Amino acid sequence: MNIIKKLLIALLINLVCLVPVYADSTEHDHDVDSRSLNVMVSKLMSWYGSLISNSETLGFQEITSDWNIYRTQYPTDINQIQILQTDLTLIADKNHYQFKVSSLIHHEGGRKKIDDNFVFNVDSDGLPKITEISFNNNETASSSKNVSDEIFDAMYYKIREFSYAWLAYMDGVEAIQTVINVADWSDAPYEINVGSTNINQPVKETLVTRKQFLYKGEHNLRLIDLVSLDTKTNTYLLDLTMNWQGVNEKKQTVIAKINQKIELKIMPGGRWHVISIKEKHLLPDLTPWQDLLC
Amino acid sequence: MLKKILELLFIIMIFNVNAAMVKAAALPILSGVGGEFTAVDSNGNTIEFNSYAGNVVVLAFGYTSCADICPFTLGYLKQLYNKLSSEEQQKVRILFVTVDPEYDTPEHLKAFLGHFNEDFIGISGSKEQTDYIVSLYQAEYNQLSAIGIPTQNIRRVQPKLFEDETEAENDTATLFSHSVSIYLVDKDGFTRSVEYTGTPKDEFSEKIKQLINE
């Protein structure tokens, strides 16, 4: 009787302790989650950017006819779209995701709060396809509580469309390269400083060398900033800070906080052309006291 | 017979739990924190950081004229080191990197660290070398005083003895503020954890043992 009690206790402890380990061990599923997340967000950026008036010149990635039927639900004279809140949840099975987005639409007639609900189906390549959009746009925003000083125009979405697609590409989603036109600038210099190691090669080669340190994992965007360098040539400096978690070539767990400074210009038709990339690995945000000086 | 089988099952289950918990507590590599450098140790020898490869390294920044956190940190590291068996201690190197290489000669560092543990290694060199080490670990330091302060006015672990008042007045040092982090580096030179003196010593020593046993 005594040993059966012990066994039951051991079984219970096993069940409790093995749950997080199991959760960590589903590497493949995790990859799909990450790839899909950056691709999904890039698509949403395209969607919101393309809803803004006069955004045609910026050439957002193509929106399929499945999506276009929902356009009539939005005002036609949108100046800005301010995303207030997002929530991503996995639904039904591992291939369906629900992206809830609350946004404040600024249009000629005033402001309107809209709650969109996108349902994505993820295909075998990890690429998401929209299967449904539903929304509640009955609420006219009268309060200025959520209004920000930042400009949420088409350019705001254009650079985020690029940024999330670039993260997805670095995560290994080859199919997204058509959005960022990697082939056009794969010979641009891409320099990385990881501790005492310096890599300075063309983009296509640096991405291969980089895999020694960051072999397989997820890039999660934390900060984004765009500064105009030259208005005549449409040249910008894009400053991205992202977290990364995954494994190196030796399958050791690695975490990183990565800053990239990307000099790029926007070409006719809205195609981005990267001029150079400089990447530095920062001290990951681990503890509240890590920046403390005494 | 059944009792023996059940007891065996019990042992296997407990072993499973231990294995699971070890995996759950695995220390990730912190990409871009630390790396290779050249410096001078407290014996005056030029060293490459990779000469410590194969050992677990615990690295902290400070300087010998520091009146508060450095003695406290080294006292903490002394107690931490004492939690390891002599066999484990042979596989660990405690490095104290000065942020004041101008004043902290290898001799100064050796005398200062000897007060805590003679196994501790002081790391000095040129200002460029120590600045580079600081940048590798993404640490920080700032000079607090523009001019040197007579060391007789600084509370010290080992008060200095002078021949006369002139010598005492001429022995000056600068005060600095600096990062308080303690870096845990694995046998391959990868930083695996960033701790401080608030980390329970048992917890820290377990991490060191984990890296020794990898």
List keywords for this structure.
heterodimer, A: alpha+beta, Nuclear Transport Factor 2, Chain: A, 6-stranded mixed sheet, 7 helices, 10 strands, B: alpha+beta, Glutaredoxin, 12 strands, 36% helix
Order of helices and strands of chain B: HEEEEHHEHEHEEHEEEEH
Q: Strand order of the main beta sheet of chain B, please?
A: 3-2-6-5-4-11-12
Give me the CATH architecture of the largest domain in chain A, please.
Roll
Radius of gyration of chain B: 21 Å
Total strands of chain A: 10
- Broad shape of chain A: globular
The total count of helices of chain A amounts to 7
Helix content of chain A: 25-40%
CATH uppermost class of chain B: Alpha Beta
CATH fold name of chain B, please?
Answer: Glutaredoxin
Q: Alpha-carbon distance between the termini of chain A? A: 59 Å
Give the H and E element order of chain A. HHHEEEEHHHEEHEEEE
**CATH architecture field of chain B:** 3-Layer(aba) Sandwich
Structure summarized in a few sentences:
The complex is a heterodimer of chains A (294) and B (214). Chain A has 294 residues and is α+β, with helices and mostly antiparallel strands. Chain A has helices spanning 2-25, 27-51, 65-68, 154-171, 177-180, 182-185, 203-210; strands at residues 78-91, 96-107, 110-122, 128-140, 189-194, 197-202, 216-230, 235-247, 253-266, 272-282.
Describe the protein's architecture and organization:
The complex is a heterodimer of chains A (294) and B (214). Chain A is of the alpha+beta class and 294 residues long. Chain A has two domains: 27-140, Nuclear Transport Factor 2, Chain: A (Roll); 181-282, Nuclear Transport Factor 2, Chain: A. Chain A contains seven helices and ten strands. Chain A has helices spanning 2-25, 27-51, 65-68, 154-171, 177-180, 182-185, 203-210, and strands at residues 78-91, 96-107, 110-122, 128-140, 189-194, 197-202, 216-230, 235-247, 253-266, 272-282. Chain A has a six-stranded mixed β-sheet with strand order 6-5-10-9-8-7. In chain A, β3 (110-122) and β4 form a beta hairpin. In chain A, α2 runs antiparallel to α4. The longest helix of chain A has 25 residues, at 27-51. Chain A is globular and about 55 Å long. Chain B is α+β, with helices and mostly antiparallel strands. Chain B has one domain (27-212): Glutaredoxin, CATH 3.40.30.10. In chain B, strands 3-2-6-5-4-11-12 form a seven-stranded mixed β-sheet, with helices on both faces. In chain B, α2 (69-82) crosses α7 (201-212). The radius of gyration of chain B is 21 Å and the shape is globular. The interface between A and B is large, with 43 and 40 residues.
